[in-house]
């Protein structure tokens, strides 16, 4: 395999105006990792491919520090778990829109990164919108127009082009440059610690556990229309698919799509012939998975006492309550100049309403769940308790 460092002999810094070094071997990487662990912060970004696999495949890892930019070729590194001490250590890891990078590091280093500073979240706290793109982010803070043409290029092909390497180097370079500006703005508004709080909450949602695999069915919102026993079967099928996708390293839809799962459970074919006649699955899916899916249908006749049904869309009093909470959280967000969608995340408000109605007859006020995070609880608990007193006791 041609190594990226061979390109460096004929091209200086790949068109960048700053220093760019390539890292292609284990010893060199470990030396830099030891240095990065000693720093207060670094900027880090990744390029990967996740088209035909369940798990992302690393194509390039970029790090910016106080000495320059480093492009790490993961295809030339034997052991990527050496990133773990850095990822879980005290060094602040600056990222933009962290979720996909976190998923990659979970895959290659078998750890959940800690002490993340997501610049997208920082921008939302500064009133710049909930999902500011990297391109708009850099234009806003540095006044630069970035070409994102290489975003979807093939990062596993070797040699990588000079254009790809320039794009990757600039991405992490600009991220490093903007970080101090963001920290200064957040400190002026006493929000500097909130970014990492929110990143830690996002990490909890990204943690890949057995419980998460067994709860995927709750994301299939059309499932609430099914009878409860059918939902139990849906849970079993969705849990099986999660494990199958991981075992085969294939995207979920390459195993069986959400739509197919819901159709099977809706029709409940009790034989392989009935399943084939339904034309829900393709012939190859029938051969591989048909008998097992039918066995789940025929083998399920009880509803576990702790079974959690698929949540249905809010309606009636709950929907009215949601709209009231949303309006209040939007008002507080505007007053604090925070992106309203960040403060009053729909998922959090819906979860709170469910708990509230389940416990509406208890004497004590229902506390906001820990999933809200300390900073949201501080802003919302008082107003939300007043709304609960007026609406639930009306």
UniProtKB/TrEMBL annotation:
<dbReference type="InterPro" id="IPR012337">
    <property type="entry name" value="RNaseH-like_sf"/>
</dbReference>
<dbReference type="InterPro" id="IPR044876">
    <property type="entry name" value="HRDC_dom_sf"/>
</dbReference>
<dbReference type="GO" id="GO:0000166">
    <property type="term" value="F:nucleotide binding"/>
</dbReference>
<dbReference type="InterPro" id="IPR002121">
    <property type="entry name" value="HRDC_dom"/>
</dbReference>
<dbReference type="InterPro" id="IPR036397">
    <property type="entry name" value="RNaseH_sf"/>
</dbReference>
<dbReference type="Pfam" id="PF01612">
    <property type="entry name" value="DNA_pol_A_exo1"/>
</dbReference>
<dbReference type="InterPro" id="IPR006292">
    <property type="entry name" value="RNase_D"/>
</dbReference>
<dbReference type="InterPro" id="IPR051086">
    <property type="entry name" value="RNase_D-like"/>
</dbReference>
<dbReference type="InterPro" id="IPR002562">
    <property type="entry name" value="3'-5'_exonuclease_dom"/>
</dbReference>
<keyword id="KW-0963">Cytoplasm</keyword>
<dbReference type="InterPro" id="IPR010997">
    <property type="entry name" value="HRDC-like_sf"/>
</dbReference>
<keyword id="KW-0269">Exonuclease</keyword>
<dbReference type="GO" id="GO:0008033">
    <property type="term" value="P:tRNA processing"/>
</dbReference>
<dbReference type="GO" id="GO:0008408">
    <property type="term" value="F:3'-5' exonuclease activity"/>
</dbReference>
<dbReference type="GO" id="GO:0003676">
    <property type="term" value="F:nucleic acid binding"/>
</dbReference>
<protein>
    <submittedName>
        <fullName>Ribonuclease D</fullName>
        <ecNumber>3.1.13.5</ecNumber>
    </submittedName>
</protein>
<keyword id="KW-0540">Nuclease</keyword>
<dbReference type="Pfam" id="PF00570">
    <property type="entry name" value="HRDC"/>
</dbReference>
<dbReference type="Pfam" id="PF21293">
    <property type="entry name" value="RNAseD_HRDC_C"/>
</dbReference>
<feature type="domain" description="HRDC">
    <location>
        <begin position="227"/>
        <end position="307"/>
    </location>
</feature>
<dbReference type="InterPro" id="IPR048579">
    <property type="entry name" value="RNAseD_HRDC_C"/>
</dbReference>
<dbReference type="GO" id="GO:0033890">
    <property type="term" value="F:ribonuclease D activity"/>
</dbReference>
<keyword id="KW-0819">tRNA processing</keyword>
<keyword id="KW-0378">Hydrolase</keyword>
